[in-house]
Amino acid sequence: LKGNFPGGDIADFNIVYSIGDWIRGKVKGSVENFGRNGLHTEKDFTVSLGNLERSLPSRLLEKLEGIDLMGEAVFHSDFSGKLDSNFKLDHAGLNVDLNLERVGIQVKEPRVSIKNLAARIHFPAELDMKKGIKVPSINIQTHMDQIEALGKVALRGIESTTQIEIAEYFHPNSPKVIPF
Questions:
Q1: What is the pLDDT of residue 165?
Q2: C-alpha dihedral, 79 to 85 to 88 to 89, nearest 10°
Q3: Cα–Cα separations (whole angstroms), residue 144 to 105, 111, 147
Q4: Tell me, what's the pLDDT at 178?
Q5: CA-to-CA distance for 52 and 130, rounded, in angstroms?
Q6: Percentage of the chain with pLDDT > 90?
Q7: 177: pLDDT confidence band, cut at 50, 70 and 90?
Q8: Predicted confidence (pLDDT) per residue in 88-139, tens digit
Q9: What is the 3-state secondary structure (H, E, C) of the chain?
Q10: Can you give the three-state secondary structure of 32-67, one letter per residue?
Q11: Is the pTM of this model over 0.90?
Q12: How far apart are CA 31 and CA 7, in angstroms?
């Protein structure tokens, strides 16, 4: 932790953490003039799906009996914004990446196997307290090497890409639930 603390500046903070052998992550960022001149954070965390499954309470594991998970779920976000003179968020930008990497799922009954599933969801978001929230685009990409079911059906090399674009801001006080 470095900075001019009486002046409200934190030049750099970096926190690294882990929970057992199934979550590891870090948070880093900076703050200028108590956030009025800007604040920035980057967050990353990774969940080992196989280790998470083994860490679940026995009553949950009983419900998942016959299902084996492997691979990782990875989350990354990058946030920048400014606070107003009352220390309320005035405007902000956010980029989010959610990834599944090298995911495998084995189900014993009915017999289903998914090999090397990868998926990425990426979206930026903008917040303007006068206009509202805008998510201008959502990009979803998936890839799966193979899926087998019941020993009779096998699909290989499945890929998809979806791009959703949204031009409007959504204001939380608006009667419209979805901005389109």
A1: 93
A2: -30
A3: 11, 17, 7
A4: 57
A5: 42
A6: 51
A7: low
A8: 888 999 999 999 999 988 888 888 899 999 999 999 999 988 888 999 999 9
A9: CEEEHHHCEEEEEEEEEEECCCEEEEEEEEEEHHHCCEEEEEEEEEEEHHHHHHHCCHHHHHHCCCEEEEEEEEEEEEEEEEECCCCCEEEEEEEEEEEEEEEEEEECCCCEEEEEEEEEEEEEEEEECCCEEECCEEEEEEEEEEEEECCCEEEEEEEEEEEEECCCCECCCCCCCCCC
A10: EHHHCCEEEEEEEEEEEHHHHHHHCCHHHHHHCCCE
A11: no
A12: 10
Of all residues in the chain, what percent carry a pLDDT higher than 70? 96
Q: Which residues pair with 126 in a beta bridge?
A: 93, 134
